[in-house]
Amino acid sequence: MKQKSTFTLFVVCALAFTFPIHKANGQLFHVGDKDLNFTIGYGTPWVFYHDYRTMLPPIAVSLDVGFRDDLGPGVLSIGGLIAATTYKDAVINPSWIHEYGEKSTTLIGALRGTYHYQFFDELDTYGGVHMGIRYESWRDYGTTPADYVRDFNIQIRPIFNLFVGAKYFFSDNIFILGEVGYGIAFINVGLGIKL
After folding, report:
1. Which of 55, 59, 67, 124 could make a disulfide contact with 86, Cβ separation 3.0–4.6 Å?
2. What residues make up the domain containing 23?
């Protein structure tokens, strides 16, 4: 699974650099714009190497608000992100005939900063950072053996995630978007609305 996701990420990045890059005549994102983004993701970073089954795929809602355009040729935006996923981590134990393991819920709340610089006429391209908190809780399921020990029940950790993305507008206020990074998922795609 790790090799498949790494290959997918490589292909997405390679395709992004095969198109001719030029500076567009005007930005699609301006100071005062408010973009509300709804995404679903693939490849959760911190459970990527386990034998897990997703119960709720990584979903996120984020907001970008145009803040400044005097820091260079692009537009700086600030906003926030709320994301969640749940999964089941099955334990492989040949000496125990019952299925058991842990179910986990992960929630992220973060501030979101992006810098929009338009490389293509049709796309709002950007890169950014999430800074916030990741909450993760675990609970057992199934029949566990007597020597089974759980590492933790709840963890709260700070997060710092980098990402790049692009938005393609179907109309003045509706767009699709894609982001690649290290947030709730490695790859996120979805729909958005310019408020």
Report:
1. 55
2. 2-194
pLDDT tens-digit map of 93-126: 666 666 667 788 889 999 999 999 888 878 889 9
The residue whose two tokens read 């749940």 is: 86
Residue 89 CB-half CA count within 13 A: 18
Chain centroid, CA 154 distance in Å? 21
Give the strand pairing for 187-194 and 154-169: unpaired
The pLDDT value recorded for residue 123 is 87
Q: What percent of the chain has pLDDT over 90?
A: 35
- Would you state the torsion angle of the CA atoms of residues 181, 29, 38, 5, taken in this order, to the nearest 10 degrees? -20
Q: How many other β-carbons are positioned within 10 Å of the β-carbon of residue 129? A: 16
Number of structural domains (the chain) is 1
d(CA 100, CA 91): 6
Residue 99 phi/psi, 5° resolution? -80, 135
- pTM of full prediction above 0.90: no
Structure tokens at 194: 């310019």
Q: What's the CATH code of the domain at 158?
A: 2.40.160.20
